[in-house]
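Holo model, coenzyme A. Inputs:
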Amino acid sequence: MLVIIADSSHISYATIICDTIAESASHRGTGIAKRTPEYIISKIENGNAVIALDGEKFAGFCYIESWGHGKFVANSGLIVHPDYRGQKLAKKIKKKIFDHSLEKYPDAKIFGITTGLAVMKINYELGYEPVTFSELTDDPSFWNGCTTCKNFDILSRTDKKMCLCTGMLYDPKKKNETHKHEYNRKVFKRLKNIKQHLFLKKKSK
Ligand SMILES: CC(C)(COP(=O)(O)OP(=O)(O)OC[C@H]1O[C@@H](n2cnc3c(N)ncnc32)[C@H](O)[C@@H]1OP(=O)(O)O)[C@@H](O)C(=O)NCCC(=O)NCCS
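Output:
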């Protein structure tokens, strides 16, 4: 398995990347920002993407976005093809794009918003901390990406202060060390359940 910085020789994978993202989103029934092949190609051409390949076969992808005039970067659009899940490939892709982000944008804070426990775990192990949305970029173009998410009404009604996603932030100035404490899946799961209960107004039994 090859996990590398994507270049122009990988442009032909843009469609399968978009299709795999869209299929996974509809399968999970969760919100996701939509991506076009043109957008994916621009990330590849700018050296801002990581691709995983099993020979010629597409296995996974992730890209860098820059916000707030380079003060923040996000590692977005993480996708592992269903055939390659559960083999720690997401971890390898995230580590590669994280190291690449630190190298290319050494002064930027790295952040992400996600509802996925796998991503929370990976981010936490890389040194991200869970934060409120107020700690993240206020660049409107980042938050505009949420308009295609099915939970956008929640973000609107909370005045962009909170949503089902958890914000996570890595500040390179604060620390250069990995976590000494363990990721606690129960804590993140409970946080997610509480948010879903509050925002989706689930009826009690
Ligand atoms: C989420 C996704 C990227 C995980 O890819 P993967 O290669 O199977 O993940 P890994 O094997 O690297 O797993 C990393 C860790 O997350 C855990 N994990 C993986 N999938 C999980 C899930 N669905 N729920 C909870 N934890 C999960 C793994 O157990 C592993 O933890 P461990 O190190 O303690 O064993 C993949 O399922 C996917 O592409 N899903 C659809 C798109 C998506 O959700 N993207 C994230 C958008 S924010």
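The radius of gyration is 17 Å. Residues 24, 78-80, 85-91, 114, 116-119, 121-122 surround coenzyme A (CB under 6 Å).
Archived with the compound record.
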